[in-house]
Amino acid sequence: MSQLMALSISIAVLGGIWAFLALGPLSGFALVWIGFIAWGCFFHSGGDTKALTKTIAGTIYGAIIGWIALMIIANVPVPALGTVWPAIVVGATVFCLVIVASIDALSVVPANVYGYAALVGFTLSKGAIGDLAAPKIANPLVMTVISLILGALFGYASGQLANMLKSKGMAMHPAE
Questions:
Q1: CA atoms in the 13 A half-sphere facing the CB of 91
Q2: In the predicted structure, residue 173 carries a pLDDT above the cut 50
Q3: What's the pLDDT band for 169 if we cut at 50, 70, 90?
Q4: Nearest by Cα to 42 from 76, 7, 67, 87
Q5: Residues with Cβ < 8 Å from 119, sequence gap 6 or more?
Q6: Contact 148/37 with Cβ under 8 angstroms?
Q7: Spatial separation of the C-alpha atoms in residues 130 and 35, rounded to whole Å
Q8: Please, where are the H alpha helices in the chain?
Q9: How far, in Å, CA of 34 to CA of 23, rounded?
Q10: Cα distance between residue 44 and residue 52, in whole Å
Q11: Which residues contact 69 (CB under 8 A, 6 or more apart)?
Q12: Number of domains within the chain
C-alpha cells in the first residue's frame, strides 16, 4: 500500500472518530475544527514525535498569547484610540509569536499562529469575551487547549496507523 493511500485511510478513519467524539461525547469540551487545525499542524511540522512536541507547545503558546491579547483588549479600554487600540495590542502580541522562534519547542511559527488564530476565532465567533477568565470548561482558552492537544494526538495516531497500514501492505505484497 502506498504511503498516500495508507495516510488517506488512517486520516479518514480517525477523522471520523475525532468528529464523532468532538461533536458527541466531548461536545462542550473539545471543538472539532480546532482539533483539525492541530492535526494539520502536526503534519505541516514534520509528522514525527518532534512535530508532536512542537505542535502542542506552539499551538498552546499561540493560544495563550491570543488569550492575553483579548484580555488586554477587553479589560484595558482606550476609547480615544477606537480600533487603533486593538490593532496595537494585536501587533504587539503577534510580535511575541515570532520572536520566540529561537526556542526549539516554539520554532514552528505557523503552529504559534494557528493557536493564536484558533483561540481568537473561537472566542470572537462565539461572543465569549466574557468567558475568558471564567474558571470553567467553557473558557475559550481551556476548550482551545484541550482541542489542540487532542487534535495533535490524533494527528500523531493517524501517522502511526498509516505506517502500520503501509508496512502491513508491504508484507502482503513485497514485490510492489
A1: 6
A2: no
A3: low
A4: 7
A5: 62, 63, 66, 67, 70, 140, 141, 144
A6: yes
A7: 23
A8: 3-23, 32-44, 49-75, 84-99, 109-126, 140-172
A9: 12
A10: 10
A11: 89, 90, 93, 116, 120
A12: 1
Q: CA–CA distance from 54 to each of 7, 29, 59, 132, 160 (Å)?
A: 21, 23, 8, 25, 17
Q: Which domain holds residue 147?
A: 3-172
118-136 pLDDT, tens digit each:
999 999 999 999 999 999 9
pLDDT for the residue 176: 45
pLDDT in tens, 32-46: 999 999 999 999 999
Cell 496595537 locates to 88
Residue 158 confidence (pLDDT)? 97
Q: Does pTM top 0.85 for this prediction?
A: yes
What contacts 4, CB < 8 A, 6 or more positions away? none
How far is it, in rounded angstroms, from Cα 140 to Cα 93?
18
Q: Which residues contact 108 (CB under 8 A, 6 or more apart)?
A: 41, 44, 45, 51, 54, 55, 58
Residue listed under C-alpha cell 514525535: 49
Alpha carbons 15 and 8: distance in angstroms, whole number: 10
Compute φ and ψ for 42, nearest 5 degrees: -55, -50
